[in-house]
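Table 4 source record.
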Amino acid sequence: MEKNKNLTAEKLKQFLVIIATVGVILINYFASVGYINGVTPEVISDKYPTFITPSGYAFSIWSLIYLGLIGFSIYQALPSQTENPRFKTIRTLYIVNCAANCLWIYLWHHDSILAALAVMFVLLGTLVLINVNLRRSESIAETWLARISFSLYFGWVTVATILNFTIALVFLGVNASESNSIILSSILIVGATALGILIRFKLSVFAYPLAIAWALTAIAIKQSGKTAIVMCAAFGVIALLVSALTVFLQLNNPTHE
């Protein structure tokens, strides 16, 4: 009886994962076309310029992230995956993640920058736990539809959290000279690079540093007039790409990637 109850609960979670994915994609669509508080995310971002704000094209990575999440949602809903121990562990985390994503959008569009930053940390925290629980996969499908999808998402949200932090400083009226702002931005870029390399090898996920490299490239393009930032970003991209490409050294051990 207890086993049947647990199985029913897990099937419900499978369904809720799909609902959560559909919901977060719809909310993001409504946000992108200005249906939430009459503004788009870019309008709020432009109010608080920083030296690590990326070029607008960088945000197109969300299309790839959501494609991966759709794939994961469908795959985890298969009858054969109901009792998958890794998916059983992350389904609730994923639902919380989607709720945090939607809440962040609402707060951001209502110019609640500090509250949005707090929610961003929740979003990041769920991704940390999800990626830790997906360190080992038992099939190619699980690797591509779960591990790689979530590590790409994790990498992008890591950079987004750093960006949200700098925006919060601007929102709070922290006045720094241009030289000090460049120094802080350069330190944050170096920190993001180091974190990208650390997580890549700690969790053995090559997509994580790729997402950060994508963001740093867009930052370098947007901040092209600031030599120190461009140099830090360029070296960061090279280091991150090298760390990601070491995946080819692990092709004989597919459980790593």
